[in-house]
Amino acid sequence: DDDEEEEEKKRVAGLGLAPGGGDVSLLKEKDSAARLVSLNVLLTVLALGVLAIAEVSAHPNLRTVLILIGGLLGGLAIVVTYSMGGRKTYRHAWRHFQPLKGGLHFIVFQIIGWVFFSMSVLLPIVPWVLATLYPGPAIRGFILVAGVSCLVSEVMMVCSLLSYTPSGTPAAHASGLTAASAASA
Question: How far apart are CA 79 and CA 96, in angstroms?
Answer without folding.
Answer: 10
